[in-house]
Amino acid sequence: GINAEYGGGMGDDLDSMLSSLGDQMGGVDADDPASRGKCFKCKQSVTTGEVLQAMGRHWHPSCWACENCGTPIGTGDFYEQEGMPHCAKCYKASFCPRCGHCDQPILDRCVSALGKKWHPEHFICSQCLSGFADGQFFERDGRPFCKNCFASVHAPRCAKCDGAIDGPCVNAIGNQYHPDCFVCDFCGCAFAGGTFFESGGKPFCSAHYHQQTGATCGACGKAITGKSVTANDKKYHPECHTCAFCLNSLTGGSFVSRNGKSYCAQCNSRLFAGK
Q: Which of 61, 99, 116, 215 lies 20 to 30 Å from 248, alpha-carbon distance?
């Protein structure tokens, strides 16, 4: 067991050494024994002068330059892109993602949101410039907003209270309402069954809609939605139009109006004879 373990270890070391040697020999020109390697850029042998080793390859110092603008890199900073070196300026201009807030290159960590990249310190509310402490934000026209700013600037307004609507809403009469605000404009009651009536651009329950339009019974005060009787400058349900004295129905019969009240012919004669 010990010998097998030892032999395996040596095999791993040998493979590693051979792989390293192969990498080093990759840049050697077999046709030129004096060569110190082949330049990766110009593919010519490096036989005299300095030779640079970078990115696992050999380079003439003059060939060790930015792939984009040709500026010599020397011992300065460089960035690898698609196997070739680039100076910092060209790398930033051509390959770096740009911040959605400041439009400057992002060289380190970034935030990905709304289909863009952002410096972490620049992923902030477009209105108040505050960060998103809870990580929650709202989008409008490709820009992030905190909850308060989104509500104050972009959220629809309730036609009743004029407050921002940032949740469920009711669309009615060409307006939007908080569900709790969509009530009768006169009595403030919710609409049973969702039925409401509109007058002057405002919602009303059945009773107060007909009160607004003059279609309520002069006797019981309830809405009149069918046939009606007009008397004493008021409207009545036919069954509600009764004699003010005997309370018998006046439907289909004659009546006399006195002081805003209706009387049947008999009661009128009895009560007001000679008057």
A: 215
Backbone angles phi, psi at 208, to 5 degrees: -80, -20
β-bridge mates for residue 58, sequence order: 39, 53
β-strand pairing of 79-81 with 52-54: unpaired
> Whole-model pTM?
0.38
CB proximity list for 107: less than 8 A, separation 6 or greater: 92, 96
Please give the angle made by the CA atoms of 268, 273 and 275, to the nearest 5 degrees: 105
Query: Are 246 and 264 contacting, i.e. CB atoms less than 8 angstroms apart?
Result: yes
CB atoms within 10 A of CB 209: 21
Tens of pLDDT, residues 183-212: 999 999 999 888 898 888 999 988 788 777
Q: Which residues contact 198 (CB under 8 A, 6 or more apart)?
A: 173, 204, 209
Per residue in 10-36, pLDDT (tens digit) is: 445 545 444 444 444 444 444 554 456
Give every CB contact of residue 176 below 8 A, 6+ residues apart in sequence: 156, 157, 158, 159, 165, 169, 170
Q: Can you tell me the distance from the alpha carbon of 195 to that of 183, in angstroms, rounded to the nearest whole number?
A: 11
Local mean pLDDT, 10-residue blocks, the chain (275 residues): 31 48 46 67 82 88 90 87 87 84 87 91 92 87 88 85 88 93 93 86 86 79 82 89 93 87 91 77
The span from the CA of 176 to the CA of 206, in Å, is: 21
Q: Could you tell me if 182 and 170 are in contact, meaning their C-beta atoms sit under 8 angstroms apart?
A: yes
Cα→Cα distances 80→56, 57, 90, 244, Å: 12, 13, 11, 102
Strand runs (DSSP E) across 67-132, as ranges? 79-81, 84-86, 111-113, 116-118
Query: For the chain, what is the largest distance between any 2 Cα atoms, rounded to a whole number of angstroms?
Result: 148
